[in-house]
């Protein structure tokens, strides 16, 4: 089953952007992510609409962060991506004719809803600033010099 890794990828891109003093082109970000620049532009344009990033065209242009990392949570980015499904599991059929399956669906549906609510709550507690701070702690721990 294919996993939706857009949230992870966008967070990766945003943290790379946070480490730069100037704009990064779609091409440069695509190289970091091992993808096509069109994919980067498509994803970041949705974040631009929410005010999280900005872009400038022309020589010296590219993508930059538009707001402080402490104001952006994982939940914000998740919503900006269109709130993709969080769980890969689901009910076998949504309109069962069997009462056993009705009971199974009810139990699973409630568990799925509870799990999603808990995950979204946790996403709201984690800022990009906390991810950046963790990155910098790990840089120090492995003896690397800070990029910025």
UniProtKB/TrEMBL annotation:
Q: Which SUPFAM superfamilies match?
A: Winged helix' DNA-binding domain (SSF46785)
Tell me any Pfam family this protein matches. Answer: Rrf2
Task: Spell out the InterPro entries in the cross-references.
Answer: Tscrpt_reg_Rrf2 (IPR000944), WH-like_DNA-bd_sf (IPR036388), WH_DNA-bd_sf (IPR036390)
Domain of life, source organism? Bacteria
Q: What is this protein called?
A: Rrf2 family transcriptional regulator
Q: What organism, scientifically named, is this protein from?
A: Magnetospirillum sulfuroxidans
| Taxon lineage | Bacteria, Pseudomonadati, Pseudomonadota, Alphaproteobacteria, Rhodospirillales
């Amino acid at each position: 089953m294919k996993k939706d890794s857009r949230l992870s990828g966008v967070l990766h891109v945003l943290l790379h952007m946070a480490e730069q003093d100037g704009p990064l082109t779609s091409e440069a970000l695509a190289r970091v992510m091992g993808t096509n620049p069109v994919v980067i532009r498509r994803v970041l344009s949705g974040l631009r609409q929410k005010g999280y990033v900005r872009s400038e065209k022309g020589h010296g242009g590219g993508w930059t962060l538009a707001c402080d990392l402490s104001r952006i949570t994982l939940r914000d980015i998740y919503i900006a991506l269109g709130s993709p499904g969080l769980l890969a599991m689901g009910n076998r059929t949504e309109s069962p004719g069997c009462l056993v399956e009705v009971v199974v669906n009810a139990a699973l549906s409630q568990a799925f809803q509870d799990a999603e609510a808990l995950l979204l709550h946790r996403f709201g507690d984690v800022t990009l600033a906390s991810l950046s701070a963790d990155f910098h702690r790990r840089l120090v721990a492995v003896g690397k010099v800070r990029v910025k």
